Amino acid sequence: MANFLSKLFGTKAERDLKELNPLLQNTLVAYEDIKQLTNDELRGKTVEFKEKIAEYIREEEERINEIKDYLDANYDLNIAEKEDLYRELENLEKKSYKKTQEILEEVLPEAFSVMKETARRFKENEYVEVTATDMDRDIAAYRECIEITGDKAKYHNSWMAGGNMITWDMCHYDVQLIGGIVLHQGRIAEMATGEGKTLVATLPVYLNALPGKGVHVVTVNDYLAKRDSEWMGLLYEFHGLSVDCIDKHEPNSEERRQAYLADITYGTNNEFGFDYLRDNMARNITELVQRPHNFAIVDEVDSVLIDDARTPLIISGPTPRGDKQEFDNYKPIVEKLYNAQKALITEVLTKAKNLLKENPDPKPQDEAAILLLRAHRGLPKNKALIKFLSEPGIKQVLLKTESFFMQEQNKNMHIIDDELYFVIEEKQNTVDIMEKGIQLVSRNAEEERLFIIPDIGAEIAELEKQNLDAKTKLERKNDIYRNFSIASERIHTIHQLMKAYTMFEKDVEYVIIDNKVKIVDEQTGRIMEGRRYSDGLHQAIEAKENVKVEAATQTYATITLQNYFRMYKKLSGMTGTAETEAGEFWNIYKLDVVVIPTNRDIIRDDAEDLVYKTKREKYAAVVDKILELNAEGRPVLVGTTSVETSELFSKILTARRIKHNVLNAKLHKKEADIVAEAGQAGTVTISTNMAGRGTDIKLTPEVREKGGLAIIGTERHDSRRVDRQLRGRAGRQGDPGSSQFFVSLEDDLMRLFGSDRIARVMDRIGLKDGEVIQHGMITKSIERAQKKVEENNFGIRKRLLEYDDVMNKQRETIYRKRRNALFGDRLSIDLSQMFYDVCYQVVEANWNAKDYEGFVSDLLLTFGCESPFESAFFLQERVDKLVDQLYPIVWENYQQKIQQLSEKTYPVVERVYLSEGHRYQNIAIPITDGVKTLNVVAPLKKCYETKGREIGLSIEKSITLAVIDNAWKEHLREMDDLKQTAQNASYEQKDPLLIYKLESFALFDALLQRVNEEIVSFLTKGDVPIAENTQLKEAKLPESEAKKLQTGRQEVGSGRQISEGGKGSAPIRVEKKVGRNEPCPCGSGKKYKQCHGRAG
To answer: What stretches of 1020-1077 adopt beta strand conformation (E)?
Structure first.
């Protein structure tokens, strides 16, 4: 049916190209005119574009500025008028953005043509000469490739990028123009390896930088961010656009703030995300670095938005009792269980083998079949079991028996499991301890309780039946909850240790480097610095490997990459492998994937998979193939899925005396050098999947004649994207090449998700040791297995996102309140709403209780005012009517109170300003509510110029920020605990996510009530303790805690998180070295120290 529809309506790729063709043709027509321009006229087009855009949105921008100026000058406007103006402001900003996109679409053909022609002139000329501008002179001070002579500037076509001297040799192909259009439209462009994605990005980046709102180019690592900002940056600077890279500067620094103010900003996904979190921990405006999120292009978009999306960004700090952990205490119990199971499975498997020799085709109820399934459910990764399952007919026996016992919702599975100490569900990634296992490690009835979670519902119900006084009942309830919490934590610890021992292998899922457990990325094979498994699993692995078990921390700020990138008004991406994940891109990001045709046809020979029965046979065949290709003089890239496999092949090739390079998680620092050599004749490179992502393997003419690069995949990866990425290393830009995957039935993918049809076919054919099967049907069956895994992984990421979506709504609310408090512009609206909400809470609580005395008391405690109602009126009137009458009185009292505070403080501020204003910028004003005292930092000059109005605003801002930050920190700790305890709901057959949503809503509702009450109470009761001779002190602006805290990533799921390991690589310096007394390179005629070399 799908094929019929494709023939009728065309494929999606054909329909996409048809839609894009008119814009492509318009661009090609415009290019003919742009080619005729002089260099100065070509640069003048940028100014022309900017003026055209500014004129198109002038009306909206003028009204926006007018409203902002009016609001700034009239802070005391009534709340209703303020709300109307802010609503109009938001609508105008949306309209301005929409009109900006319209005008960008209109100038696109000319703008793309300008960039294409610029690239052509740099490619075909040693230098491009133009009339020098002030920006040319500024850039010449640090770029050696720009030479200023009089009023002329020469842009040479060789410059430093990423620490290397490059000569510009690229010009945009027509297909790259299509890619540029797709990126500008906010979609994903899938372009094959070697098609110049970095160059394609220059087109939409230049176009979208013209309005001056900022463009972010996101890369997978800091090397690429720094390299690309220097490599492509000169083309933008040639046209007067500023370029910077955030990874070159320290967080929270003035340099990083300036990087974000550049027209085009490069950086890594981590740093963009962490800067967003740091900004929302800022205590003063000068700490903010980011602008509003306008447009982002994500390079290697599948790696960033899918692979990295499993790991939320975390800023964390110390937590009470974070170093108190039980992993080492329970480790002997788990080791005893694991060793007992190992011995049992060895015995069970031996018995099964003997019985199957007598009867090779048993029924599912026969002892041989039961023993085989028991061995599989006990230790599915047992190497002897995996080898036995590759023998003819054995896998079929297992599958048939498993299907039989899984009938009627595993009704009879207990027959298999009861004899085991624990059961492993490998596909579900779970381990369950059985009754036999509990008895093994329990010496008495008290120890048996270690593995049982108390039935909290039954215990509470039993308590309610007892005739106890309220105080005793409360104490007993607290004991029940405490015991439940301790038991949950204990069982969670044991389960995580069980997972560590049975499901996570050293040199496969993780490596030990510098006595630390480091996760290996299954997609790329790189070490994921700073990332830790969540839910205590990482600590469990540390205990297993006898390395230091790190202390737990609490979250101070967190966000998933999905929710960070969804904040951009427009988002696009580019990669060589996105089509297989098109569904996920659309479901989560609403990003459409468009496949861009290649400039030259791909002539790489992709052979069908070779399938062997055992790994031993497969490895022997791979080594023979490497020797054969090496003898032909062709370079060979051997792709593996684990560090362990890459080291195994390295040992074999070393024994055969074949010179080779190894690129895996342990040796990732040599990546650039190894990739550079990988295309040379006779070179053998063993790599774990990463294969130099982001860089191309270039071939010599000699290698092209011999057939190009040969790709050998030693195993199919769980994800089709990774296999396509590996294949894509060969055949770039019309190069010859070949690719071949070697697969065995013992591979994890085939063992877990492979079709039983493959096993049946191999049994029927009766293959002998070393024989191979190769057929299109087999290859398709393997791809179906990969699809199953991809669907499973998507489910995991979607689940993670669902948890973070709950947090995201809360985060947006709190961060919006923080920003309003930080800037102070909308703070009065927020405060008025807080006063109204607290009024409602006070009235409703006491009205429901029919407690007039309590109402009078709460009014005095919270607002410091007397009741405006008589008792009878309060008890008879409706709640909303009472609130409507109370709120204006309370709000008016507060307005008078804050004005009196300002007037009381102003004389002292005036005295300090007139005597010390030339020395002091900020002043500290103490304010107390009788219990706590806060030092409010206020800008001295502004307080004086506004006759004290700024004093009141500074008090409101400081108190609001202080209360929100303290409450939010506590709330995040409660959310950390909730996320962990919610997982225990699964033991009660409840959905942990549902429990998490319900409980988190209640926690957040309580948080908002608490924040509102604290802020309102402090503001209404606060006073400035000033006597006649009081001297206010100079103050420094308050700083956030972010600089002292740790940044890191959390690997899959939820739980507490630890800091990022190691420091990032040092920034690459490409500035030219100029002596202080030498002439400044800008051509001003001054000495460097008196011009661009001046300090500051």
So the answer is: 1033-1034, 1046-1051
Q: Number of helices (H) and strands (E), helices first, in the chain?
A: 41, 30
Single out the residue of 812, 814, 806 nearest to residue 1007, CA to CA.
814
Length of the chain: 1096
Contacts for 37 with CB less than 8 Å, ≥ 6 apart: 45, 117
Interval 984-1026: pLDDT, tens: 666 556 677 888 888 889 999 999 999 999 999 889 888 887 6
Of all helices (H) and strands (E), which one includes residue 558? strand 553-559
Q: How far is CA 265 from CA 70, 119, 212, 213, 236, in A?
A: 32, 20, 12, 11, 11
Rounded mean pLDDT, 591-612:
84
**Contact partners, residue 35, CB within 8 Å, separation at least 6:** 117
Q: Give the CA distances from residue 64 to residues 58, 294, 847, 1060, in Å, rounded to whole numbers and listed in that order.
A: 10, 17, 45, 42
Determine the Cα–Cα distance for residues 229 and 171; give it in Å rounded to an integer: 18
Q: Is the dihedral of CA 861, 866, 868, 869 positive or negative?
A: positive
Burial of 969 (0-12, 13-18, 19+ CB in 10 A): middle
Report which residue type is found at 216: H
How many whole angstroms separate alpha carbon 76 and alpha carbon 904?
Answer: 19
Residues 6+ apart with CB under 8 A from 851: none
DSSP state of 132: -
> Taking Cα atoms as reference points, which of 822, 854, 825 lies closest to residue 841?
854
The torsion angles phi and psi of 1032, rounded to 5 degrees, stand at -75, 145
466 sits in the region (left: phi over 0; alpha: psi -120 to 50; else beta) called beta
Whole-angstrom Cα Rg for the chain: 34
A 10 A CB-CB count for 58 gives 11
- β-bridge mates for residue 824, sequence order: none
Q: Does this model's pTM top 0.90?
A: no
- How far is Cα 253 from Cα 307, in angstroms, rounded to an integer? 30
From CA 404, how far away is CA 1051, in angstroms rounded? 36
The Cα 753–Cα 1031 span in angstroms is 76
Give the torsion sign (CA, 1020, 1024, 1025, 1028).
negative
Amino acid at the residue 673: D
pLDDT in tens, 704-739: 888 888 889 888 887 777 788 788 777 777 788 888
Distance CA 569, CA 775 (A): 47
Q: Which amino acid is at 40?
A: D
**Pairing of β 737-744 and β 709-713:** parallel
Give the whole-angstrom CA distance, residue 576 versus residue 1080.
Answer: 44
Task: Name the residue type at position 636.
Answer: V
Contact 438, 448 (CB under 8 A): yes
3-state secondary structure of 138: helix
What proportion of the chain, given as a percentage, has pLDDT over 90?
A: 28
Which residues contact residue 295 at a Cβ distance below 8 angstroms, ignoring those fewer than 6 apart? 208, 213, 214, 215, 216, 568, 569, 570, 571, 572
Which of 775, 766, 768 is closest to 743 using CA atoms?
775
Cβ proximity of 801 and 789 under 8 Å: no
* DSSP result, 977-1001: HHHHHHGGGGGGT--HHHHHHHHHH
C-alpha distances (whole Å) from 553 to each of 302, 533, 756, 867 are 30, 13, 46, 46
What is the rounded distance in angstroms from the CA atom of residue 325 to the CA atom of residue 303?
34
- Tell me how far apart the alpha carbons of residues 449 and 1066 are, in angstroms, rounded to a whole number: 53
Tokens 């962990």 — which residue?
Answer: 980
The span from the CA of 978 to the CA of 995, in Å, is: 9
537 Cβ neighbours under 8 A, 6+ residues apart: 496, 499, 500, 504, 1055
Which tokens belong to 223? 């090397």
Token pair belonging to 676: 């550079």
Of residues 652 and 479, the one with the higher pLDDT is 652
The DSSP code for 1035 is -
